[in-house]
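Field log, afternoon session.

UNIT: design team B
ACTIVITY: writing a sequence onto a fixed backbone
BACKBONE:
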């Protein structure tokens, strides 16, 4: 199986899954930001729902870190009151960006799953985890039953060859890919990154790449952790973790070879990330 297939199978009590299957996926983490958190609370309260596991449920206040905007301040207070009553942990306005916190708190790691109200939750692909942003009602449902329905996506494997030029950053890697694929070619795919150049990337570089999955139209960009990333995740999680990786004989919809040696520094013009030019 591909990496996304393995993760979804492992979290839906299935031996195997294939593209097109609809699976009820257990969520290791369910979070809401201060922007949508109040609406999640409203959905929970209005529908008389309980929480499947408060220890896996979180608020992350990262939309208005100063708390100075009245609307956000009200939303944050609604979330604080609900969290206090239900034993939910809050990562408050001084904690950092929610998706990054999941990685740095050891809540997202190789093979894990998470849903949040953040549209860039697929950034968790940086550590080989499955993350998705969802609407308020979907998050409320995940808080209540611990699961979310997903359609198993097709997978594309990108095989990177060559050596990354010294003047090419992780953002340049993404912009070169956007220049090649545009905003629609990878639409709806889980995209795996493979090759020596990818294996050598730091966590910061992986996060930079994975954070652009939404702009590329992909469901998620998945980077299998190397030993250094696994050690980091284990340190943060406080326990031994299993590396989840694609099978050698996994069936991909496409396999594409990419020579990273040919990548050059690029920037995007205002308005469209895929509208890139050479520096």
């Amino acid at each position: 199986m591909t990496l996304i297939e393995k993760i979804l199978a492992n979290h839906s009590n299935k031996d195997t899954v294939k593209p097109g299957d609809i699976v009820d996926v257990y969520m290791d983490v369910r979070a809401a930001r201060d922007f949508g958190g109040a609406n999640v609370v409203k959905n929970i309260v209005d529908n008389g729902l309980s929480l499947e596991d408060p220890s896996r449920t979180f608020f992350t206040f990262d939309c208005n870190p100063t708390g100075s905007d009245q609307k956000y301040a009200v939303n944050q207070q609604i979330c604080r009151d609900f969290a206090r009553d239900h034993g939910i942990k809050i990562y408050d306005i001084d904690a950092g960006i929610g998706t990054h916190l999941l990685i740095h708190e050891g809540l997202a790691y190789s093979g894990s799953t998470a849903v949040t109200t953040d549209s860039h939750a697929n950034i968790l692909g940086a550590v080989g985890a499955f993350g998705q942003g969802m609407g308020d009602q979907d998050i409320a449902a995940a808080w209540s039953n611990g699961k979310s329905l997903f359609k198993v996506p097709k997978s594309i494997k990108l095989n990177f060859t060559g050596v990354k030029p010294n003047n090419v950053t992780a953002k340049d890697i993404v912009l070169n890919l956007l220049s090649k694929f545009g905003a629609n070619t990878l639409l709806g795919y889980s995209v795996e990154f493979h090759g020596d150049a990818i294996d050598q990337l730091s966590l910061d570089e992986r996060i930079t790449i994975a954070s652009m999955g939404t702009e590329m139209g992909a469901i998620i960009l998945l980077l299998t952790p190397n030993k250094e990333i696994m050690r980091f995740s284990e340190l943060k999680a406080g326990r031994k973790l299993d590396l989840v990786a694609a099978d050698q004989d996994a069936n991909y919809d496409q396999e594409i070879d990419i020579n990273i040696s040919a990548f050059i520094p690029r920037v995007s013009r205002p308005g469209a990330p895929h509208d890139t030019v050479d520096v």
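LOG NOTE: The domain at 24-151 is CATH 3.30.499.10 (Aconitase; domain 3).
NEXT ACTIVITY: expression trials, pending approval
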